[in-house]
């Protein structure tokens, strides 16, 4: 049993499997979870966590797992990162809440100033804060509709934007996100995404053909003059870490500019150094009119942001935006700690390095294993897509089996994808090299045994 009393980066950076996974204590708590929590709240790996930090998650039975998930791309700076802990500790003793709309405080303004400075584009910007990715996406759409006086929102195949009524309607995949939860919000239109691995005429034609089809559908089926916003993830996250073919994003952004449409980048999963840039849009120099962020922004405290052109955000009347908790002082302090850490520890560089270690290893695995159809991603947002050997047919059971076997070995990996056949890797950016290598070795062994 571990005698650890504190999490964060001082936790032993080791994989340690001392019981079956899940162990007896976790199994006991999982039985209680099943009696107390509805099954709609699923579980990827039923180990109950007591501590986490650096590249590991420690469970109630004393197992230390290598973390290739970061709580779905949230703990980019690591769990219980020192600058986050210190700021939140101080804040919690000073005051916990006033409601920024009632009596404001400086940390909210500091977060807004910082996001206005570091997000793509040097135009004048404004930022307002919310609690979750879905809430921020909804607010971005509200603002775009208000500013343009138009109603239609265009989204893409394989897109994921949340689970509220509007964002569920914006999300592409039916199971598990939409099944039985209709009716959905109106004025949402879906167009093709440039998905290189699955583009019928080949990846070399993907960007141009997909953009032409998307634009044609918008013009013919909706009318560009009716479109308030085009909303896209610069790398589709839940959809399977699909990097749109190069050229697609700039082409869509240009179409928006030419037609007075607000181009919204959903960087909830890709943001804050994850992809080896501070924001994934930077890779092709795309400057969104509005950028939505969450997850990695505050190291695990609930915070999200809408950052955009001043002339768009300033259009909304006084009191038209807000919420009780948006930009809570603890979450704002955490965000300031995250931003300091990204800069001080060069986590953008660290994310690139993680990609440089992972991609060649995974490509070598793919060369040996016909079950791995594609290896893709940037920085520390990397995935493999599993197929029935010799075909492009999705192989979700293989993805599930590989994930299960990795979990049993003490490596936490997540699945994703419209077809459920993608394994995605999102290590905290502070993961030490030796754990990264050990995780990849486990993956290599498990894939070779499938
Ligand atoms: N936009 C791009 O990835 C959240 C979903 C987990 P919230 N992705 C993880 C699940 O199964 O519910 C996400 C995202 C993108 C929006 C969201 C929504 O962010 O903070 O979960 O609301």
Automatic annotation (TrEMBL):
SUPFAM superfamilies: PLP-dependent transferases. It catalyses: (S)-3-amino-2-methylpropanoate + 2-oxoglutarate = 2-methyl-3-oxopropanoate + L-glutamate; 4-aminobutanoate + 2-oxoglutarate = succinate semialdehyde + L-glutamate. Pathway: Amino-acid degradation; 4-aminobutanoate degradation. Keywords: Aminotransferase, Pyridoxal phosphate, Transferase. It is an enzyme of class 2 (transferase). Pfam families: Aminotran_3. GO terms for biological process: gamma-aminobutyric acid metabolic process. InterPro entries: 4NH2But_aminotransferase_bac (IPR004632), Aminotrans_3 (IPR005814), Aminotrans_3_PPA_site (IPR049704), Class-III_PLP-dep_AT (IPR050103), PyrdxlP-dep_Trfase (IPR015424), PyrdxlP-dep_Trfase_major (IPR015421), PyrdxlP-dep_Trfase_small (IPR015422). Its cofactor is pyridoxal 5'-phosphate. GO terms for molecular function: (S)-3-amino-2-methylpropionate transaminase activity; 4-aminobutyrate:2-oxoglutarate transaminase activity; identical protein binding; pyridoxal phosphate binding. The keyword Metal-binding does not apply. Its EC number is 2.6.1.19, 2.6.1.22. The keyword Transferase applies. Belongs to the class-III pyridoxal-phosphate-dependent aminotransferase family. This is (S)-3-amino-2-methylpropionate transaminase. It comes from Planobispora takensis.
């Amino acid at each position: 049993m571990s005698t650890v009393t504190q999490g964060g980066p001082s936790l032993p950076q080791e994989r340690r499997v001392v019981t079956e996974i899940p162990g007896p204590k976790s199994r006991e708590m999982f039985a209680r979870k099943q009696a107390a929590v509805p099954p709609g709240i699923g579980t990827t790996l039923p180990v109950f966590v007591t501590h986490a930090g650096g590249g590991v998650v420690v469970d109630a039975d004393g197992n230390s797992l290598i973390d290739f998930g970061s709580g779905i791309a949230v703990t980019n700076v690591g769990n219980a990162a020192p600058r986050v802990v210190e700021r939140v500790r101080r804040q919690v003793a000073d005051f916990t809440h006033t409601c920024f709309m009632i009596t404001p405080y400086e940390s909210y303004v500091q977060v807004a100033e910082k996001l206005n400075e570091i997000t793509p584009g040097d135009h004048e910007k404004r930022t307002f804060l919310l609690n979750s990715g879905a809430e921020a996406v909804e607010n971005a759409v509200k603002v775009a509709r208000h500013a343009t006086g138009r109603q239609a929102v265009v989204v893409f195949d394989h897109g994921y934007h949340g689970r509220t009524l509007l964002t569920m309607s914006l999300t592409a995949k039916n199971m598990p996100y939409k099944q039985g939860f209709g009716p959905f919000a109106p004025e949402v239109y879906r167009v093709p995404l440039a998905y290189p691995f699955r583009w019928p005429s080949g990846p070399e034609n993907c960007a141009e053909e997909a953009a032409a089809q998307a634009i044609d559908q918008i013009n013919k089926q909706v009318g560009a003059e009716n479109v308030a916003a085009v909303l896209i993830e610069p790398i589709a996250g839940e959809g399977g870490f699909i990097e749109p073919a190069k050229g697609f994003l700039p082409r869509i952004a240009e179409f928006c500019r030419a037609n007075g449409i607000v181009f919204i980048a959903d960087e909830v999963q890709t943001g804050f150094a994850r992809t080896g840039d501070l924001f994934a849009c930077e890779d092709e120099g795309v400057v969104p009119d509005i950028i939505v962020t969450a997850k990695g922004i505050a190291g695990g405290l609930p915070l999200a942001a809408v950052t955009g052109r001043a002339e768009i955000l300033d259009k909304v009347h006084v009191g038209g935006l807000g919420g009780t908790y948006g930009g809570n002082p603890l979450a704002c302090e955490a965000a300031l700690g995250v931003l300091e850490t990204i800069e001080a520890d060069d986590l953008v560089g660290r994310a690139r390095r993680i990609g440089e270690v992972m991609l060649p290893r995974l490509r070598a695995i793919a060369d040996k294993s016909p079950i791995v159809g594609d290896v893709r991603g940037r920085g520390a947002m990397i995935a493999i897509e599993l197929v029935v050997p010799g075909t492009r047919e999705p192989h979700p059971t293989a993805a599930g089996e590989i994930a299960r076997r990795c979990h049993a070995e003490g490596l936490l990996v997540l699945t994703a994808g419209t077809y459920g056949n993608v394994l995605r890797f999102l290590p905290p950016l502070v993961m030490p090299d030796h754990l990264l290598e050990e995780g990849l070795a486990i993956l290599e062994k498990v894939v070779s045994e499938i």
